[in-house]
Design goal:
Strand content: under 5%
Distance between the termini: 106 Å
Mean pLDDT: 83
Low-confidence stretches: none
Shape: flat
Largest sheet: none
Radius of gyration: 35 Å
Number of strands: 0
């Protein structure tokens, strides 16, 4: 039997099959290599990907052909994925990049018919108009956006900012007044007040503070806490204007009208 076994082993060895050597040292290596290191090395040794050739257009016919092919690709893309608003925005901005603003507006309008509640779509539409100094078109987009989605503060803030940049201050006030009719959060009042402060219009600030304080009934703990914060903000404004008498009156009014809601450390420290 031993002879047979020895013969078989010789046959295996002659066929080129190597024996698996045993691991002599099973202790962990002194230097351990982590998965992150392996990935980093692989990334470092990876060759740069081949970039597609740059297409150079040398005559009007080639430009027309390029536009036709690209428009067809975009139209096919939005036909396959109609509700993918990102494709619509890329298409419209591509047209705007070619100064084809009528086409760009048409694409934005078609996209709004698909999803008028997409906040980013309105923002990109208005920003395209502003970037290219089509102020009346941008104003039209903001008006529609604010009317259809009045709860999006970003629309109102960007609209007022645009009008302030072009020094259309009466329009800024008109926008803020329209915004306040929707009973917005306190941030709307804060933005209105900051605008009037930038205009150094102390009289308007005081009138807005009075309306701000009276803007909502004090029901429940949260509303009472918000009301206290409004009084404190008004008092702080008067102190900033160096009118300590008016500031003191706001503190006293808060104590008289809100009672226990004012019995907190921050209120008395401010007082």
């Amino acid at each position: 039997v031993n002879l047979k076994m020895n013969g078989a082993l010789k046959d295996v060895s002659s066929m080129g099959v190597q024996r698996i050597s045993k691991v002599k040292n099973k202790n962990p290596a002194a230097i351990q290599i982590t998965a992150e290191q392996l990935l980093a090395e692989a990334q470092a040794h990876r060759q740069d990907e081949t970039l597609p050739p740059v297409e150079r257009i040398t005559d009007p016919e080639e430009l027309d052909d390029y536009k036709y092919r690209t428009r067809k690709e975009f139209e096919d893309s939005i036909r396959r994925q109609t509700h993918h608003i990102g494709n619509w925005m890329k298409y419209a901005e591509w047209e705007a990049g070619l100064k084809e603003f009528r086409r760009a507006r048409s694409i934005f309008e078609r996209a709004l018919e698909v999803d008028y509640q997409h906040v980013g779509l309105w923002l990109r539409y208005a920003e395209m108009e502003m970037k290219n100094k089509y102020i009346n078109h941008a104003r039209n987009v903001w008006e529609r956006a604010c009317k259809l989605l009045p709860g999006v503060d970003q629309f109102w803030l960007k609209y007022t900012y645009m009008e302030e940049v072009i020094s259309n201050y009466d329009k800024v006030r008109e926008i803020f007044e329209s915004w306040l009719t929707w009973n917005p959060k306190d941030e709307a009042w804060h933005a209105y007040l900051k605008f009037e402060e930038r205009m150094n219009n102390v009289k308007n600030c005081r009138q807005i503070f009075e309306r701000f304080i009276d803007s909502s009934p004090n029901i429940g703990d949260q509303e009472a806490s918000d009301a206290v914060a409004r009084y404190l903000k008004a008092a702080t404004f008067e102190e900033k204007m160096n009118d300590r008498e008016r500031a003191r009156l706001y503190y006293e009014r808060a104590l008289a009208e809100l009672g226990e809601a004012c019995l907190k450390e921050n209120f008395f420290l401010a007082f």
